[in-house]
Amino acid sequence: MAKKPFILGLGGTTNPESSTEQALAIALQSANEAGADTELFGSHRLMLLPHYRSDPAGLNDTGKDLVELVRRADGVLLSSPGYHGTVSGLVKNAIDYIEETSGDERVYLDGIPIGLIVTAHGWQAVGSTLAALRSIVHSLRGWPTPLGVGINALGGMFCDGVCSDDGVNEQLNLVAQQVMLRAETR
């Protein structure tokens, strides 16, 4: 029996009901339904991360857990709100913890597929934040999927973990499928 790929869902805001975290959960569920083991590292745990500093002795248990999840991941779904045209500080802080893998056999996110999801209240912030995430993923040697999901969430399309926009649902499923395809062939 082949090993099931492990897909990490990383991102959100301080609100677990945010459009950012709900979109991530929908995509992660799609990966799970496609046969992956999945885990969401969202708002509750993001808020428990101290500001990153390059000192393993200074990592709290939540930081250590995040680093181990990254090391285990065959793929990542990464979701950020577009705050003032870029990645939120909360999500960027979590990404900074990936520095702890710089000495690993698989450095950073080398060779693994990363599906990107951005939500914002306006298209300008969606576009610039998606571009920033792609740049970050390239810097960490990851493979951004061809589709990056950009969602103008101004209309309030997420409620209780459900997205009322069929087109957005289709994109969230597709980005998860693209991560799964690459994760399964690694």
UniProtKB/TrEMBL annotation:
What SUPFAM superfamilies does the annotation carry? Flavoproteins
Q: What start-end ranges are recorded for coiled-coil regions in this protein?
A: none
Q: Which GO terms describe its molecular function?
A: oxidoreductase activity
Show which residues constitute the signal peptide.
none
UniProt domain NADPH-dependent FMN reductase-like: residue ranges: 7-146
Q: Which domain of life is it from?
A: Bacteria
What protein name applies here?
Answer: NAD(P)H-dependent oxidoreductase
Can you name the source organism? Answer: Parasphingorhabdus halotolerans
